[in-house]
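thread from #wetlab-drylab

HS: before we spend reagent money on co-crystallization trials with adenosine monophosphate, can we at least see a predicted complex? here's what I'd submit
DV: go for it
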Amino acid sequence: MQTRLLPPGPENLELGRQFLLQDLPVAFPTETVYGLGADARSEQGVRAVFEAKGRPADNPLIVHLADPGQIGECAEWTPLGRTLARALMPGPVTLVLRKKPTVSPAVTAGLDTVGLRVPDHPVAHAFLQCCGFPVAAPSANTSSRPSPTTAEAVLEDLKGRIPLILDGGPCRVGIESSVIDVTGDRPVILRPGRVTAEDLAAFAEAETYELRPGESPRSPGLKYRHYAPACEAVLVRPERRELLEEAVRQAMQEGKRVSVLARPGFYAGEAPLFSLGQTVDDMARLLFFSLRAAEKESDLLFVEAPEDSGFGRAVLNRMRKACGGREL
Ligand code: AMP
Ligand code: MG
């Protein structure tokens, strides 16, 4: 299959809609990462997304809508869900509610809940509005790889597997949405993201869900290997920073090609530096982009961890998974 990378003009949005109606997956930009869309009403369309990504069938997709007003077509509102939707949508957040039968069970991997998101991105909004139906979309990467934050990163993973990538330039947030269960009285953060527990405190005290070993997860995606670059990666916490130069030197002596992903000032040795910008927001925006750039010329990456608070917690969550739990 030929994969076209096209600008998001009205005629290409319409082309994308036609592909979705033929059950062919289309990649589109959002403010978090690029998504790989299917018509959420079509089991066959949804299957094609799982197939293109190599995604395990029990890992549910998030349903994307142009407007929060469409949520009632897909799910049962709760008072907490309404409050948070009013305050946070459109935005980098997914709300989990009890699903209605309109949503194909293939989307939710058989769960009785569905994750719903209204992206805050002009191209995503225009595309979803052009479609008019709910679009189920996971991140547009090969399963287990770093999420794509540019159209080129989507092409790298899915060339020949999908017909169309709508190019909206680099993503603003850079890591996936916060996934928040709002079926009860208290929000439960299933996956951390740009919308933090501190942000939710204005509405209700949030609980952060942690997957315990041996337990079956409330958010199935949590159990899978995720965000991993093609080479080995090691996390470096701020308090372990002084060990970095020696660790780099040693790995280089062993003949490894070593790179460092960090903010300026964190590392000043001879290994190539891939920038993570200045702020925690920069780190999120550049993390997957820099992992994909660095893996091409490295055998080993050292990755600077942010402070474990606020939005830093979400960035750290992705880095830990990208490093497979390895720390200096
Ligand atoms: P991705 O689209 O790759 O960012 O993955 C979406 C993630 O959202 C999944 O891996 C799940 O962890 C989570 N998710 C989606 N739908 C639900 C749901 N109904 N209940 C709990 N978690 C969900
Ligand atoms: Mg993903």
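DV: The chain has two domains: 4-208, 232-322.
HS: ok that's useful, forwarding to the group
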